Amino acid sequence: MRLDYLTIFPDYLAPLGLSLPGKAVESGLIDVHVHDLREWTHDRHRTVDDTPYGGGAGMVLKPEPFGEAFEALGVDEHTTVVFTTPSGEPFTQRLAEELATRQRLVFACGRYEGIDQRVIDHAREVAEVREVSLGDYVLNGGEVAALAITEAVVRLLPGFMGNAESLVEESHTGGLLEYPVYTKPPVWDGREVPMVLRSGDHGLVAAWRQEQARRRTAERRPDLLAPSALDDGTPIERAVPADAAEVLTLQRACWVQEALANDSLDIPALHESLDDVRAWLAEWDTYVVRRSGRLVGAVRGRRDGPEGQVWDIGRVMVAPDLQGAGLGRALLEHIEAVAPAGVTSYALFTGAASARNHRMYKKAGYRLRRDLPAPPGAVVLTKRRR
Ligand code: JD8
Question: How much is the pTM?
Answer without folding.
Answer: 0.70
